[in-house]
């Protein structure tokens, strides 16, 4: 697996964890920021054909 693929999957994992943490904390602003980061990470991964389905 290439470095880009690993980095893209790692970014998705971190973004999903940030969304979960923000939701648990009840921080609406942090949820919005984390969701934006997740959307961006998923968009970039998809554009480059990186499978992120198993990245939790």
Task: Describe this entry's structure for a reader.
Helix content is about 75%, strand content about 0%. With about 55 residues, it is an all-alpha fold. The chain has 2 helices and no strands. The radius of gyration is 12 Å and the shape is elongated. The model has no long low-confidence stretch (mean pLDDT about 95). α1 (about 5-25) runs antiparallel to α2 (about 30-45). The protein has helices at about 5-25, 30-45.
- Overall pLDDT metric: 94
**How many whole angstroms does the radius of gyration measure?**
12 Å
**Secondary structure tally, helices:** 2
Give the number of DSSP strands: 0
H and E string: HH
Taking the sheet with the most strands, its summary is:
none
Strand content: under 5%
Shape: elongated
Give the low-confidence spans: none
Helix content percent band:
over 70%
Question: What is the terminal separation in angstroms?
Answer: 18 Å
Please identify the structural class as seen in this structure: mainly alpha
Any key phrases for this structure?
single chain, 56 residues, mainly alpha, 2 helices, 77% helix
Short description:
This protein has about 55 residues and is an all-alpha fold. It has helices spanning about 5-25, 30-45.
Topology:
Blueprint: H1 3-25, H2 28-47
């Amino acid at each position: 697996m290439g470095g880009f693929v690993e980095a893209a999957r790692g970014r998705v994992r971190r973004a999903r964890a940030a969304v979960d943490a923000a939701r648990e904390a009840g921080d609406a602003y942090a949820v919005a920021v984390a969701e934006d980061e997740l959307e961006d990470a998923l968009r970039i991964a998809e554009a480059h054909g990186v499978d992120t389905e198993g990245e939790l």
